[in-house]
């Protein structure tokens, strides 16, 4: 499991070491890790000796890390320049940098555009303007410098701890931000590096241990690795039969949106469910059966199921009635439900804790509006896109159920406050029907997983997941499977575009390779 923390959590963990006078040691470890990563980036491009590095240094400890790192690089034969963004700089860091022969330029007495040209001409730019102590974004000349530099397109940017302007706690972004190729972060990954839009500015994230890791509290954000997902994936045994594997009831599609039904039923079928019972109008059912002859069409009274998927392509009175009826039957039987797309507006007053909502940003804004979650102020799609972590948490708290918010990073919030972030996909997945495939995969995993979720000594317990957060973990597994399938499918086309069907086609391969990973670890 990858864990991420708020800036405050990192500071709390550092405090005992700062109190015992070890602050300088922590900074040296951070600076050394940062310098190592810069060396790695330079070596990918050229010889170290004579390569040039510019550090943009703010007045706090983040600037201190940058200046110490640059002094280490100067001692290894690199040409180093520091642009000091404020009237003050970290005194020891600056002294070390000057002693190592670095050149110092001052933003206060210089021209931001000219300094941006200097920085853009170097092999690597280190962004050490703001770290966890930032309040808001860059202002004045520093903002101008960064905006010009971003436009010039520097060869390689290494961010110190977080890209300046990215909120370390939430991933909220205060523009302008210099988009990093690599972010070297210290002591613990900052939550803002695993949540959009911050994640989109961070590039590759490298964690440098500085000796505080054992002092960290429960993470703010979690990300399942391939190994975690492999452990949690349901698998058949010799005693399995189709009913024991899990049966999924699906209310999806409509006369107007036939494809949504086809996609989600087929996605469920290829992700290991024992059987799918489909409910919908005849026109959609014909297509569903043509694509997935393994499924059953039950026009009104469905047989027994272990979970429901309700909503993709649901439109019009007739299908909305089926959705409401399925909600009631799930409520009566205490069954888990994935609520997607057209069914999000049909939710009953209270939803039980084993339901999962799967909105995209626009649908989440509408849902929050209907709950009056932000008081009388309307929440827009743009609001959700700029603060997804905040709004997905709010929605989970307000509804009392798990909420999966789709995006480049998909966030899954449990009502307890635990949040997962998965980001294995490719932007090519922003294509019609992609969400229907995710809904099918999730419905299938829910139908298969129900029994394992309460085990005291099963895979969920082994990962330290409380019973109340296990539905969120199932949703995170679905998101990682979906993202990996998209990336694998795009790779077949040398990184080219995708259709939802292509994503779906790769799902069995992803499940197979994750299972193989689990087997190889057991051997
Ligand atoms: N603690 C440790 O032992 C370790 C910490 N480490 C490192 O320290 C970093 C945190 O350092 P930090 O707390 O000094 O804050 P930092 O992010 O450098 O910036 C705050 C400074 O900038 C200013 N400022 C604030 N907002 C601003 C704005 N919008 N625009 C302009 N200026 C603004 C603010 O000044 P003020 O405005 O309050 O006068 C303040 O001086 C952390 O990210 C990591 O890199 C590592 O070395 C490991 C050991
Ligand atoms: N830029 C992106 N990078 C990676 N995945 C994305 C991106 N944009 C969207 N996705 C994924 O594609 C899917 C889109 O779902 P959705 O918006 O419901 O589409 P549809 O309704 O057409 O099926 C989601 O799973 C989302 O996480
Ligand atoms: K920074």
TrEMBL record:
Reaction it catalyzes: (6R)-NADHX = (6S)-NADHX; (6R)-NADPHX = (6S)-NADPHX; (6S)-NADHX + ADP = AMP + phosphate + NADH + H(+); (6S)-NADPHX + ADP = AMP + phosphate + NADPH + H(+)
CC cofactor: Mg(2+); K(+)
A GO molecular function held by the record: ATP binding
GO biological process: metabolite repair; nicotinamide nucleotide metabolic process
Binding residues annotated for K(+), in chain numbering: 62, 127, 164
Cofactor note: Binds 1 potassium ion per subunit.
Residues noted as binding (6S)-NADPHX in the record, renumbered to the chain: 61-65, 131-137, 161, 260, 313, 360, 436
Residue ranges of the TM segments: none
Binding site residues for AMP: 406-410, 435
YjeF C-terminal domain residues: 225-514
Keyword terms: ATP-binding, Isomerase, Lyase, Metal-binding, Multifunctional enzyme, NAD, NADP, Nucleotide-binding, Potassium
Entry EC number(s): 4.2.1.136, 5.1.99.6
YjeF N-terminal domain: residues covered: 10-218
Residue ranges of coiled coil: none
Subunit and partners: Homotetramer.
PANTHER family: ATP-DEPENDENT (S)-NAD(P)H-HYDRATE DEHYDRATASE (PTHR12592:SF0), ATP-DEPENDENT (S)-NAD(P)H-HYDRATE DEHYDRATASE FAMILY MEMBER (PTHR12592)
Family the entry assigns: In the C-terminal section; belongs to the NnrD/CARKD family. Belongs to the NnrD/CARKD family.
Protein task: Catalyzes the dehydration of the S-form of NAD(P)HX at the expense of ADP, which is converted to AMP. Together with NAD(P)HX epimerase, which catalyzes the epimerization of the S- and R-forms, the enzyme allows the repair of both epimers of NAD(P)HX, a damaged form of NAD(P)H that is a result of enzymatic or heat-dependent hydration. Catalyzes the epimerization of the S- and R-forms of NAD(P)HX, a damaged form of NAD(P)H that is a result of enzymatic or heat-dependent hydration. This is a prerequisite for the S-specific NAD(P)H-hydrate dehydratase to allow the repair of both epimers of NAD(P)HX.
Listed name of the protein: Bifunctional NAD(P)H-hydrate repair enzyme
């Amino acid at each position: 499991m990858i864990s991420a923390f708020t800036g405050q959590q990192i500071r709390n963990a550092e405090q005992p070491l700062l109190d015992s006078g070890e602050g300088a040691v922590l900074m040296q470890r951070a600076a050394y890790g940062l310098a190592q990563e810069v060396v790695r980036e330079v070596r990918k491009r050229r010889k170290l000796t004579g390569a040039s590095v510019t550090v943009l240094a703010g007045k706090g400890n983040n600037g201190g890390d940058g200046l110490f790192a640059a002094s280490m690089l100067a001692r290894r034969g690199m040409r180093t320049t520091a642009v000091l963004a404020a009237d003050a700089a970290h005194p020891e860091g600056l002294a070390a940098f000057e002693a190592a022969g670095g050149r110092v330029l001052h933003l206060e007495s210089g021209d931001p555009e000219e300094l941006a040209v200097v920085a853009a001409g170097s092999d690597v730019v280190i962004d050490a303007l703001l770290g966890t102590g930032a309040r808001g974004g860059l202002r004045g000349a520093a903002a101008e410098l960064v905006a010009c530099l971003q436009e010039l397109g520097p060869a390689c940017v290494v961010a110190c701890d977080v890209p300046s302007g990215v909120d370390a706690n939430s991933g909220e972004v205060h523009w302008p931000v210099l988009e990093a190729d690599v972010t070297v972060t210290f002591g613990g990954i900052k939550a803002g590096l695993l949540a959009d839009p911050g994640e989109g500015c961070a590039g590759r994230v490298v964690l440098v241990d500085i000796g505080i890791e054992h002092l960290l509290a429960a993470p703010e954000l979690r990300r399942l690795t391939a190994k975690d997902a492999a452990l949690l994936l349901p698998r058949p045994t010799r005693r399995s039969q189709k009913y024991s594997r899990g049966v999924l009831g699906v209310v999806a599609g409509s006369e107007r949106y036939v494809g949504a039904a086809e996609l989600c039923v087929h996605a469920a079928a290829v992700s290991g469910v024992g059987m799918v019972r489909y409910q919908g109008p005849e026109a959609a059912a014909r297509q569903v059966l043509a694509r997935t002859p393994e499924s059953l069409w039950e026009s009104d009274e469905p047989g027994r199921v272990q979970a429901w998927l309700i909503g993709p392509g649901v439109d019009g009175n007739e299908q909305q009635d089926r959705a409401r009826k399925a909600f009631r039957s799930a409520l009566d039987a205490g069954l888990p439900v994935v609520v997607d797309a057209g069914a999000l507006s049909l939710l009953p007053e209270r939803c039980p804790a084993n339901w999962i909502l799967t909105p995209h940003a626009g649908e989440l804004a509408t849902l929050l509006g209907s709950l009056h979650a932000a008081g009388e102020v309307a929440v827009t799609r743009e609001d959700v896109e700029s603060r997804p972590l905040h709004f997905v948490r709010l929605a989970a708290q307000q509804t009392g159920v798990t909420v999966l918010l789709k995006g480049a990073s998909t966030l899954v919030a449990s009502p307890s406050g635990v949040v997962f972030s998965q980001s294995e996909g490719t932007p090519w997945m922003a294509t019609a029907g992609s969400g229907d495939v995710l809904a099918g995969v999730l419905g299938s995993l829910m139908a298969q997983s129900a029994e394992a979720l309460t085990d005291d000594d099963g895979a969920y317990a082994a990962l330290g997941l409380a019973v109340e957060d296990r539905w969120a973990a199932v949703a995170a597994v679905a998101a990682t499977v979906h993202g990996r399938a998209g990336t694998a499918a795009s790779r077949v086309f040398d990184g080219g575009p995708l259709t939802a069907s292509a994503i779906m086609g790769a799902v069995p391969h992803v499940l197979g390779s994750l299972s193989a990973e689990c087997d190889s670890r057991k051997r």
